Amino acid sequence: MPAIHSIADLQAYIRKQAASLPPEQIIFIPKVYSTRLKERRYPTRYELDAAAGNRPAVADNGYAAVLDSALLARLAITRDTSQPSDGKIIKDHRGEPTGLILGAPGLLATVRNTTPHTFDERLWALKSMQKHYNQVGLTSVIDRSEGAEGFRAYEFLHQRRELTVRTYVTWVVNLQGSPQQVRERIEAIPLLTGWGDNWLRVGSLKAFLDGGILVGTAYLREPYGSNTEVYGYEDPTYRGVLGAPKENIFEMARVAGELGWQMTAHVTGGGSLDVLLDAYETADKEKSIRDRRFTVTHGNFPNPQAIARAKRLGVVFDCQPAWHYFDGPAVKEVLGPLRMRDFQPFRSLFDAGVVVAGGSDHMIGFDARKAINPYHPFLGMWMAITRQTIDGTDMEPEQKISREEALRMWTLNAAYLSFEENTKGSIEPGKLADFVVISKDFLSCAVDEIKEIEALRTVVDGKVVYNSSYGW
Questions:
Q1: What residues does CATH 3.20.20.140 cover in the chain?
Q2: I want to staple 415 with a disulfide (CB 3.0 to 4.6 A). Which of 302, 421, 423, 428 is the partner?
Q3: pLDDT for 346
Q4: CATH architecture of 7-108
């Protein structure tokens, strides 16, 4: 799939797909973010119509989607359709659907790309991706969205000794239904945090509590406001979507603590972060979680109160600086400078003694610098060090961190997150022989050269898994 940088790019891809797919098949375009399109807005249903004709098409990002007229008709979504409880159908001044739907995972489940991949396709993708990770110097990763089928692919390659990246696998839990159903789903998982070995280990349970700050569905502490054109709606009272009942979130935290699981949750807004910390505090009162390293994934808006609560509970942050780089300017236009003071405040987190790990939120694409999202570790470190955004400005420069702290985010702190700081994350006698030879001195090169650092040789378990001299 090509990179989509504009609505014209999107239309060109739809036309190409329309020429090759069966007429009834939905043309599915994943990971389309309005903040990353040249127009700084979502396409309308009519712009999709112009490319798809009478074919059903959807531009999706997992937390919001734009449907063309044919697909709206297939789902019987009209001006008279009631609003879903877990999202919002955006309508224009005439009351007609614009095609944009925020949240609403139940409504959109049938239109998302659910074509099953074969097991062999999963194996090919996994092996190919690990090879690309090795090429940028990655020796371990945390996979943040798996279940039984994905874990089976890892286990198959592990048994054949074909893994080249050590992996800590997160297990996603469905929070819909009743608290009892949530408990039963967790109790049915036949594994537990820590099961496995140095190559493949079961990690935390994970829930999704809200949408995305890039798409205007993150659950904020207060409404987004009136400057929301980039998100495709006008509603000064809208504060985002909390994607699960609070009682289910609290039950998941209680069960995780009770059974000995580590837990994390996708939270991108300050409101969802506060709900998650409430759940963690409740679980901690019943059984201490302070040695379980419960985690916040993303956690883009931790205010001083949230940071203090996280520190008291021993909660770890799993952060992705790429969002600051690509989306900071657009998000600042919406939220204003005052609220952006709390956007990815790495300096404040470090100063409070909260453990912060660095990651990518990589989802699609092999190109380490152009994928959604970029997974090149030195690009991520450069972002955290400089606080520079894609338009060249330094955003919240008081939140910059040092080179040593940025390096720690991708090494020892990340190992701490997975309970492996005693076996990896630093080069010491007795630890695993995982290391990378790089093209520049990270600590002394010019700051803008940091993002250009490349891996010359990557070693995992004492074996060279990538050598730039040979291109493998």
A1: 119-209+244-417
A2: 421
A3: 98
A4: Roll (3.10)
3-class state of residue 172 by DSSP: strand
Average pLDDT over residues 346-359: 99
Q: In what order do the strands lie in the sheet with 356-358?
A: 140-146, 166-172, 200-208, 263-267, 295-298, 316-319, 356-358
Which DSSP state fits 43?
Answer: P
Residues 6+ apart with CB under 8 A from 145: 170, 172, 206
What tens digit of pLDDT does each residue of 246-267 get?
999 999 999 999 999 999 999 9
Domain with CATH 3.10.310.70 in the chain: 7-108
Question: If 0-12 CB within 10 Å is exposed, 13-18 middle and 19+ buried, where does residue 51 land?
Answer: buried
User: For 188-206, what is each residue's pLDDT tens digit?
Assistant: 998 999 999 999 999 999 9
Q: Is the pLDDT of residue 113 over 70?
A: no
Is 314:291 a contact under the CB 8 Å cutoff? yes
Sequence-ordered list of residues with C-beta below 8 angstroms from that of 371, at least 6 positions apart, any chain: 362, 363, 364, 365
State the pairing for strand pair 27-29/166-172. Answer: unpaired
CATH superfamily of 119-209+244-417: Metal-dependent hydrolases (3.20.20.140)
What pLDDT does residue 114 have?
A: 62
pTM of the full structure = 0.92
For the stretch 92-120, what's the b/e string if a residue is b when 16 or more beta carbons lie within 10 angstroms of its beta carbon?
eeeeebbbbbbbbbebbeebeeeeeeeee
